[in-house]
Amino acid sequence: MSILIGHDTRLLVQGITGREGEFHSRAMQEYGTKIVAGMTPGKGGQQALDGTVPVFNTVAEAVRQTGANTSCIFVPAPGAPDAILEAIGAGIATVFCITEGIPALDMVPVVEAVRLAGARLIGPNCPGATSPGRAKVGIIPGSVHLAGDVGVVSRSGTLTYEAVQAMTDAGIGQSTCIGIGGDPIIGTTFLDVLQLFAADPGTRALVLIGEIGGAAEEEAAAWAADHLRDIPKAAFIAGRTAPEGKRMGHAGAIISGGSGTAASKVTALEAAGFKVAGSPSELPGLLRAAGYRG
Amino acid sequence: MKIQEADAKGLLLAQGLPVPAWSVARSPAEARGAAESILATGADRVVIKAQVLVGGRGKAGGVKLAGSAGEAEAIAGQILGMSIKGITVRKVLVAAAADIVKEFYLSAVLDRAARQILLMGSAEGGVEIEQVAAERPEAIVTVHAHPHLGLLDWQARELAFRMGLGGHLKAAAGIAKGLVRTMLACDADLVEINPLAIVREAGPNGTTVERLVCLDAKVTLDDSALPRHPELEVLRDLDEEDPADVAARAAGISFIRLDGTIGCMVNGAGLAMTTMDLVKRAGGEPANFLDIGGGAKADKVTEAMRLILSDPKVNAILVNIFGGITRGDEVALGLIEARAQQVRDVPMVVRIVGTNAAEAAELLRAARFETAATLDEAAAIAVAASQAARA
Fold first, then answer.
1. Cα–chain-centroid distance for residue B9?
2. Which CATH superfamily is domain A140-289 in?
3. Bridge partners for A39 per DSSP
4. Which one of A41, A233, B233, B294 is most buried, counting C-beta atoms within 10 A?
5. Contact B360, B332 (CB under 8 A)
């Protein structure tokens, strides 16, 4: 089993005719993801990906004609908030926004609209998710994965690939890997994902990859302490050596006023029973030390 | 992006908030001129404040009062050129010294956890809010602005009452709403007034009146929103920027200079932080955080290498690339080109995995680069090279 995406995913790609959108749509399709529709205003009626995917002018039309239930957004930052709103307005249940550089205050009304619609937004500024062997939505290279039963949730992009590759190399497969995004305002938090994994019978262990800034790792750890006591858990936190007051690339990755430090996150995770790695390469060993047999 | 107090006050004023007049001086003579005009309006004294983008300027001696134009000139002479936390003071703000009755704190900040704008107020102003939060959290009152409708009138009034500003209700509620307006108009992460103060001013016919005013202002802007705010981009204070920061921004590279000796080039922010952490864990000190971003081509790699080598402390370099959108062979070509151009020979270890890693390995082998298979191994090699260079 898996969370968020799987065999039932019928994917719409918003911005499929753009350079990034087309490149990654091809990779998703090659991985086996069912891309049922593309959407670019003004290009309705065209075919994308060598004639295999119909392009529509509006999301509503794409949903009506193809039954798309999940969307992946590659629209540039100025238009991305509107793309999210169009998707949920058309009844799409799960929206992945890959776009980076969206101003944080643009996202405040959008995440509220998503909540009111009862939909789920992952990102923005996220690499997407993969349920190995089933579907891949976003930009994570398919080659790093192995199908299995460990759920992986991360705030980063390439660091996720690094950690997942280490697991795959050690023969530890994944149920779903999800990157929630490095922006200050995101639709789905660590806590949300842990709750989804907790309800998934196909997920029997967890890996959390966090970074400095904010308090989302601590919040997730507090919940895990009460609800995920008995399953093997490992974690890694990036930014142990980052100085205070400097934004480390991601808009969300900043230590300010003494909060958001790696030390605080490591302490909270260890208290919740996570084995915390000093390097991503240690994650497979720590999972096994935590009792994972897979 | 941080901006200076004087510029932050300008943004508040533009939204109709009560900010007492000020001017900015870049020399003692300019400070004297500014003080003369202020004293001519009837003020007893002027305040002279260092304009730097770091906190703690008061404690560092960067804020002083003067009773005459001559004294203002002398004090400006002391403050200008002073170093505060490593930043040289190049300008001062000059304003009439306020007759303060009581100080408050008020800010609007992006609350990441709640995903809304948070208003924070306190009757304990003039001190660091972090200190109040740690010692007396009950002294801070908060309210979230509605995500679609903004700060509602009743919320602003309630905040004012809870802060003990019932006597200045209209002004306080107006300021609270003005902070949210400023935040939205400028795409700010933070708009902070500390202190917000009740001051005594001369009224008509020799009377005095009390008024609520913003005596200080701190505004932090969202970097992601600057492309749509050219009027705010010009507020960037290049006086306080390292030339390397300017070059990095122009090249679209995320770069932060640190104190160590091992230059790092990585794709992705999380992986870049991890690379720094592993350098430190292996016994070395990273010289920088550097994220070349996704899909970087050879020219970006050469620019990144120039940035790293512009730091004379760098005596070893670690390149760590996990190809996804970024192609390993593009990075390898950039490294080969950079080495041909570079003026200084520094030992380098390269680790490239992911997309087109095999092609990259072939290119690097032919060009005789030292490579590593894992990040842990790369960190160990870089640290050993750095230590050998120092010995």
1. 16
2. Succinyl-CoA synthetase domains (3.40.50.261)
3. A14, A56
4. A233
5. yes
Residue position matching structure tokens 């390898």: B332
Picking from B45, B72, B97, the residue at the C-terminal end of a domain is: B97
User: Would an 8 Å CB–CB cutoff place A18 in contact with chain B?
Assistant: no
pLDDT tens-place string over residues A67-100: 999 999 999 999 999 999 999 999 999 999 999 9
Question: Could you tell me which chain B residue has the CA closest to the CA of A101?
Answer: B224
Residue A250 a catalytic site member? yes
> What are the phi and psi torsion angles at B180 (to 5°)?
-65, -40
Q: What are the boundaries of each domain within chain A? A: 11-122, 140-289
CB within 8 Å: A249 and B254: yes
Is 90 exceeded by the pLDDT of residue A191? yes
**DSSP secondary-structure letter at A243?**
P
Check whether the bond before B195 is cis (ω within 30° of 0): yes
What range defines the domain where residue B300 resides? 243-390
**Nearest C-alpha in A relative to B322:** A158
Query: Which CATH number is B197's domain given?
Result: 3.30.470.20
State the DSSP string of B125-153. -SS-HHHHHHH-GGGEEEEEPBTTTBS-H
B271 to chain A: closest CA residue: A159
Residues B376 and B263 in one domain: yes
**Domains held by chain B: number:** 3
Q: Measured between beta carbons, which residues in chain A are less than 8 angstroms from residue B269?
A: 156-157, 182, 211, 248-250, 253
Q: Span A11-122: which CATH code?
A: 3.40.50.720
Residues B253 and B383 reside in one and the same domain: yes
pLDDT digits (tens, 9 = 90+) for B101-130: 999 999 999 999 999 999 999 999 988 888
Residues of B in contact with A140 (CB under 8 A): 324
